[in-house]
Amino acid sequence: MRLPDFWTGLGFACLGSFVVQRATGFPEPAGAASPRLFPYIIGSGLLLLGIAIAARSLRARRAAGHGGFFRPEAPDWMRNPLALARVLLIPLSIVLFGLLAPAFGTLLVATPLIFLNALAWQEKPLPALLSAVTICVIVTLFFTRIMRVPLPTSSFFSPWF
After folding, report:
1. Where is the chain membrane-spanning (predicted)?
2. Could you give the 3-state DSSP secondary structure of residue 157?
3. CB atoms inside a 10 Å sphere around CB 70
4. In the 8-state DSSP scheme, what is residue 113?
5. How far apart are CA 99 and CA 93, in angstroms?
6. CA-CA distance, 48 to 143, in Å (whole number)?
7. Which residues partner with 73 through β-bridges?
8. For a tag on the chain, would you pick the N or C end, based on fewer CB atoms within 10 A?
């Protein structure tokens, strides 16, 4: 589905406003770049560009003489249940990972989610499983050993990760 640029710009402006609002609550140590600097810059950019996109869309619609409000139009691919499921599975996987990983660990949650996404894209089961396990182990090792990012682990995997 392609939304009119007005709604897309308004969405980016709202997201940017939310990020800026949240970033102002971060601590600000004296004499150093604070943790709020990067989110504040990104949020401000999203806010300003979102407003610019929405304003440009309104000017273009006014110049073209289009009346009425903006309704999104559903493209043909949205009538295909498999294509729609593929698109919806990605954000659903992100939400499920965020909810389940703290309780069950990164590997136990991410592996089946990657496996299901591969199956949705018509990958054969054995290569999908091997890919999911390999990707999860490599990414977990990279973040925990090299980047020193503490990922959630289950009690079974905690001695290794």
Report:
1. 38-55, 87-120, 126-144
2. coil
3. 15
4. H
5. 10
6. 33
7. 2
8. N
Q: Is the pTM of this model over 0.90?
A: no
Q: Which tens digit of pLDDT belongs to each residue from 26-47?
A: 777 776 667 778 888 999 999 9
For residue 121, the tally of other CB atoms under 10 A from its CB is 10
Handedness of CA 116, 122, 126, 128 (dihedral sign): negative
pLDDT reading at 157 higher than 60: no
Cα–Cα dist 112/114, whole Å:
5
Averaged confidence pLDDT in the chain: 85
The C-alpha atoms of residue 119 and residue 53 are separated, in whole angstroms, by: 37
| Rounded (5°) CA angle 6-8-89 | 150
DSSP per residue over 9-57, as a string? HHHHHHHHHHHHHHHTTS---TTS--TTHHHHHHHHHHHHHHHHHHHHH
Q: Which residue has the tokens 């996404």?
A: 117
H or E element at residue 114: helix 106-120
* Domain ranges, ordered by start, for the chain: 5-64, 77-146
> SS3 of 87, please?
helix
Could you give the count of Cα atoms lying within 13 Å of 15 in the half-sphere of its Cβ? 11
